[in-house]
Design goal:
Chain lengths: 173, 177
């Protein structure tokens, strides 16, 4: 599992982050985007690789299923990024509670990524603006937290995959 | 479980970070933000360890993953690694010392305390300093990227820990009220 750390770092494309930061003068936002892209792609790949027959799997009673985790990630990305984009609030569980199929959840994850890209394209100066997201915070705080929240649930997904004998995307060669 | 997001968000509020400092410092906007967010998973990991008995540290849900104790050690090792590089220090070699050598709850709690102290120095730098290029595992980035990566790495493994705890009927810190 040590290699997971190395791949996680590599997949976050630090060179791209640096180049992007130089191009857009958004060092802070660029660093946040690099992490978010890396972990989001792992989750998307996990959703794509997981057989639909396992989507309702959960390792113990009082946790989310795979499907609910994928839906929660997509729903929360929409929630964070709507606030950053200054658009109408999105319910965190809007996808988790309604979308159950593999095709629907993979699409939801891709749609969430597309929706979040403009949020991660703002400048550092714009990211200093405050936004009301469960209390006042800067947009940069919300962008960084969105990526880390994805990481938390990718950590759940990794353990679920391992318990089913599957190798998570971050450990694949 | 939905409440977990709300609690975590509240804990990552920049206002909390600012309250821990003498005054907000515009020259440290990005690093202060990175620290505020990093503190969320770091504190969850510490609180999880505090509530886990020593007897559960060897638990692993399937053979080819880290044990619970190894996960806590890996988080401390990761923090030392990312924060050393973010400070311009040499990369720890080997970088799995804690995971390999610290086996008890008391040892692991101490290790996490030490790694947090190491990281506090790294997060104290200015944004201008954090824009300094940094290299790790042959990749080029900047120090801010590494600081954010540190938080992301902690949260990923906290996600592992959450599932381990749930499998043992323990409510993780992020879901406690």
């Amino acid at each position: 599992m040590r290699r997971t750390l190395l791949i996680l770092v590599a997949a976050a494309s630090p060179l791209t982050a640096q180049q992007q930061a130089a191009k857009d003068a958004n060092t802070g936002v660029g660093a946040a985007r690099a992490h978010w892209v890396g972990v989001h792609r792992y989750i998307e790949r996990a959703a794509e690789q997981l057989p639909e027959s396992l989507y309702n799997y959960k390792p113990t009673a009082n946790v989310r299923t795979f499907a609910e985790l994928f839906g929660h990630v997509a729903g929360t990305e929409f929630m964070f990024c709507a606030a950053i984009r200054g658009e109408a609030p999105r319910a965190e569980d809007a996808i988790e509670s309604t979308t159950k199929t593999k095709a629907g959840l993979v699409k939801a994850l891709k749609d969430a990524a597309t929706y979040c890209e403009p949020a991660y394209a703002i400048s550092d100066a714009a990211a200093a603006a405050m936004v009301d997201l469960f209390g006042q915070r800067s947009k940069l705080n919300a962008l960084v937290f969105n990526a880390l929240h994805d990481g938390e649930h990718y950590g759940n997904i990794v353990t679920y995959l391992r318990m089913n004998g599957l190798v998570p995307p971050s450990s694949q060669r | 479980m939905r409440k977990a997001v709300l609690v975590a968000l509240a804990m990552s509020s920049p206002l909390i970070a600012q309250q821990q400092q003498s005054a907000p410092d515009a020259s440290k906007f990005a690093t202060t933000t990175a620290r505020a967010v990093w503190m969320v998973p770091h504190n969850y990991v510490v609180r999880a360890l505090e509530q886990v008995p020593d007897s559960l540290l060897s638990f692993k849900p399937t053979p080819d993953v880290r044990s619970l104790g190894q996960l806590f050690g890996h988080v401390a090792d990761g923090e030392h690694l990312f924060c050393a590089l973010a400070l311009g220090e040499a990369m720890p070699n080997p970088f799995d010392v804690v995971e390999k050598s610290k086996k008890t709850k008391a040892e692991l709690l101490q290790a996490l305390k030490e790694s947090a102290a190491h990281c506090d120095k790294a997060y104290a730098q200015t944004d201008a300093s954090a824009a300094t290029p940094a290299e790790f595992f042959g990749n080029k980035a900047n120090r801010l990227f590494l600081l954010n990566m540190n938080g992301a790495h902690d949260f990923e493994h906290y996600g592992n820990i959450v599932t381990y705890l749930r499998l043992k009927g323990i409510t993780p810190p992020s879901s406690q009220r």
